[in-house]
């Protein structure tokens, strides 16, 4: 018996539509033999209608194939178009373009950008044309390859910035002396003279969305921050100065379960006094306490978010395993097996 089927797969309004193009079943021979009793009598009817029986079986097999394809089409059409992350961000996982087939794989594109959680995923008008994934660098046992463009990461940083989440009020540090005006007496002498031995807060906030750049072997991010120094008075709080920081960090990405997680480290920073009510800064002393605050408080705060990770566009029920990260110009890829 020979069975052949050809199916088509195309993008239709952000979902995949599967349809049977050709289907055939051919039985070269059909041998039915009855034994015992009056089998000799019925055998004649069987032989007379063998061609009809064979044709009916061929049709039944083809109908089952078409029925199975219809069920698969319903499954593909029911795949979610969004993956909820939190109250702010949702990943748009609508398909864009038609899938591309090779002799041993199928490649397809999804939008992948993050959108506000209170909005419906729009149909993307992006087209990648003849964009191809890099040729497999690992074992042929890697059943799944996922590539994420840096625009995906920049879209989520933009959302969190607009939601006002990229800010942090610092009221405790490992060296609590830094949050008292006495600790700043040499950095900003007028601060101590005007507010002697007063506790302080540091309001750290991003003034623009962090920018992610992916290159071969590395992931870099730049962040521009405002650090407002606040003095706690007896019955009020007084903003006394604002320091502008430009920070460069490098990061590593990994896969945990079906989530992409990360960790960043401080590379370097530059600073400038944006405004002040308590005089100029002692520029030779500023870097030391600033680096302490960034490395011991701000960076762990950022890494706590990245440690939770973001969901990857994986079909429910599948689990990524044995994955590793590859970085190329403007994108990261990770081959993996799944179960």
Report on this model:
The protein has 339 residues and is of the alpha+beta class. It has three domains: 2-77, no CATH class; 80-132, no CATH class; 155-310, Bactericidal permeability-increasing protein, domain 2. It has helices spanning 39-48, 50-77, 150-162, 189-194, 287-308, and strands spanning 2-12, 15-26, 82-84, 89-92, 95-101, 106-110, 114-116, 144-149, 167-170, 200-206, 211-215, 218-232, 237-256, 259-276, 310-311, 320-321, 326-328, 331-338. The strands form five sheets. Strands 9, 10, 11, 12, 13, 14 and 15 form a seven-stranded antiparallel sheet that branches. Strands 8, 16, 17 and 18 form a four-stranded antiparallel sheet that branches. The longest helix is centred in the first third of the chain and has 28 residues, at 50-77. It is rod-shaped. Residues 125-140 have low confidence and may be disordered.
